[in-house]
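User: My collaborator sent over this chain with a note saying "see what the structure looks like." That's all I know about it. Can you take a look?
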Amino acid sequence: MTGGVWNAETVRRFREQYRVRGQNAYAMTETGMGTQFPCGFEEMDESGSVGIRSPFRAIRLVSDDGSPTRVGEIGELWVKGRALFLGHWNKPEANAECFEGEWFKTGDLFR
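Assistant: Without extra context I'll predict from the sequence alone. Here is the result:
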């Protein structure tokens, strides 16, 4: 499995060179694995998608005002669930900026 977003050509080259499965996922230190591809979805491997939400995670895409985005629109990814970091040490202003209740605002844009 890989982290980040690989284009279709990179996935193909990785498989050819290493003879193992390569696929996209989304993770960050603060959230752990936010999305992943379950095994058996080979038809999606070269789509550029980062998969579905990981177990024990909830995800949402939100607009600038915090409302849910419509399908096909770009929004910021928010993640919540078990084993997320609790916040920045002694930085309440940073925590206020990057959390909305239990939701961690990743700052990353998705469609």
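A starting point for your reply to your collaborator: Strands lie at 26-28, 32-36, 52-53, 57-62, 75-81, 99-100, 103-110.
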